[in-house]
Write a structure and sequence with these properties.
Chain B: Keywords: Membrane, Transmembrane, Transmembrane helix. The complex is a heterodimer of chains A (179) and B (271). Chain A has 179 residues and is mostly helical. Chain A is 73% helix and 0% strand. Chain B is 29% helix and 27% strand. Chain B has 4 helices and 11 strands. Chain B has helices at residues 3-22, 32-68, 75-82, 124-137; strands at residues 97-106, 109-118, 154-162, 168-175, 186-191, 203-208, 215-219, 224-227, 241-243, 252-257, 264-269. In chain B, strands 1-2-3-4 form a 4-stranded antiparallel beta sheet, with no helix packed on it. The chains are: A mainly alpha (179), B alpha+beta (271).
Chain lengths: 179, 271
């Protein structure tokens, strides 16, 4: 019995170490802030650990992890605890204001994208991140978000349209201001 | 180039931008042991909660059974006792319970943080009146589009104010049940003391478990502030405290304030 438990813990550890970097990057795009991303991934993996006996033997543990993370993110958003990244100028919450100097153009690019992402409604942000960063299919994205494929399509399209409308981002795309 | 090709290219560009922005995340070592410890705590909490729920249900059943026994089981009489209505006013449906968390002075004007907790309306009429009362106070509940969305839900608002400016709601939610904070659970948000950007991140407001005895707020310059359980207000107040909020059953609230020139780094329960 104890051996089986140890084996399960070892299996979870190996899963977690392997997935940590990718989950951190996804969470960073969802939350726009380092500490909030760590917090989101850590609490997601704690939940996954609790259910690991069931999850570890499932066909697609990744899908379960994504679903847990998106749920946790949506829950936090509902509570209006926006991980210190304010969506509106007048909210008074802390946010990093991007420098406008062109010597650190790449950092500005990233900051502009993160700010633009943070301003998207949460479901649009999730759809954009899952479709275009995680590179999931519409069906996989719908599973992760717990909604229909149609809802994913509409949220992703609206999110992308809003990102395209951000002047700074359009310039970045036009001038290739990234790696 | 067709419109479709252009469309795809733009989406590819956005995918590249996302990948580039994602690189900004500092990955670090996976905190395996911390996650496993946290997972075990969650599992234990879940079991403890299940045990308590069972106890409450069993207890209620026992009480009903006993009250039914002496005179041969007059169910109607028992029901009369069990569902005596509590007026909406006593449940704080139309006027919230309000608790001051912290206050101080910034640039010659008083700043203050308070938490208002509104009881759950039970009917549409109660919800309508609560909706109007909230509007009069200038607060807007989370995810509530029409008054009926408030039925069966408690609402809370942590607001900050400065001088004569209208208070601003900072942390708020409308929920069927309070989320229970336990152990070292903590949720916090950093905001401003005044209304200009220069005091950004100097005021931290958050929730912790009822058992938390100390919260340490770390500022970006390496200094810290300690919030500890406090009652009342005095001239010696530092602006940092843990307080019980009337009507808020999920945990206690805390506030930390940073000295001028620095801002929020992180916060943790340290006792």
């Amino acid at each position: 019995m104890g051996d089986r438990k140890q084996a399960r813990d070892a299996e979870f550890q190996s899963f977690m170490v392997g997935r940590w970097p990718r989950l951190m990057r996804t969470a960073f795009l969802l939350t726009g802030e380092q500490h909030a991303a760590e917090d989101l991934v850590q609490s997601t993996l704690e939940r996954v650990f609790v259910a690991w006996r069931r999850v570890g033997s499932a066909d697609d543990p990744e899908a379960y992890v994504r679903r847990v993370m998106i749920n946790a993110h949506a829950r936090r958003h509902r509570r209006r605890l926006k991980e210190f990244l304010a969506p509106k100028d007048d909210s008074g919450l802390v946010r990093e204001v991007a420098d406008t100097g062109d010597r650190i153009a790449q950092a500005d690019d990233r900051s502009a994208l993160l700010t633009a992402l943070a301003r998207l409604p949460v479901r649009q942000r999730e759809a954009v991140v899952l479709r275009y960063w995680e590179d999931l299919t519409e069906t996989q994205t719908a599973e992760a978000m717990g909604c229909s494929v149609g809802t994913v399509k509409s949220n992703a399209a609206k999110g992308i349209a809003k990102l395209r409308a951000v002047p700074g981002l359009a310039d970045m795309v036009t001038h290739g201001g990234r790696k | 180039m067709s419109a479709q090709e252009n469309h795809d290219m733009t989406q590819t560009d956005i995918a590249l931008l996302l990948a580039d922005a994602a690189d900004e995340a500092e990955i670090g070592m996976a905190p395996v042991q911390a996650v496993i410890r946290g997972g075990r705590r969650r599992r234990a909490r879940r079991w403890a909660l299940a045990a308590v729920t069972t106890l409450v249900v069993a207890g209620s059943t026992g009480v009903l059974a006993v009250t039914g026994l002496p005179d041969g089981g007059h169910a109607d009489r028992r029901t009369d006792v069990a569902v005596r209505p509590v007026p909406a006013e006593a449940r704080h449906v139309y006027q919230p319970e309000s608790t001051d968390l912290a206050r101080g002075t910034y640039q010659g004007k008083e700043w203050r943080v308070s938490v208002d907790v509104w009881g759950a309306p039970r009917t549409e009429a109660e919800a309508n009146r609560q909706f109007d009362a909230m509007a009069e106070l200038g607060v807007k509940p989370a995810d509530v589009r029409r008054p009926a969305d408030l039925i069966g839900k408690v609402s809370y608002f942590a607001s900050r104010g400065w001088g004569e400016n209208r208070p601003q709601q900072v942390m708020f939610d409308t929920v069927e049940k309070f989320e229970q904070y336990s152990g070292t659970d903590l949720q916090a948000v950093a905001t401003r003391l005044g209304y200009g950007g220069e005091s950004s991140g100097r005021l931290v407001i958050g929730m912790v478990s009822k058992s938390a005895r100390q919260v340490t707020c770390h500022w970006k310059d390496g200094t810290t502030a300690l919030a500890e359980p406090t009652e009342g207000f005095s001239a010696q107040d530092t602006g940092s405290a843990i307080r019980t909020v009337d009507g808020f059953k999920g945990g206690n609230w805390f506030v930390c304030t940073a000295p001028a020139g620095t801002s929020y780094g992180s916060a943790e329960v340290t006792k």
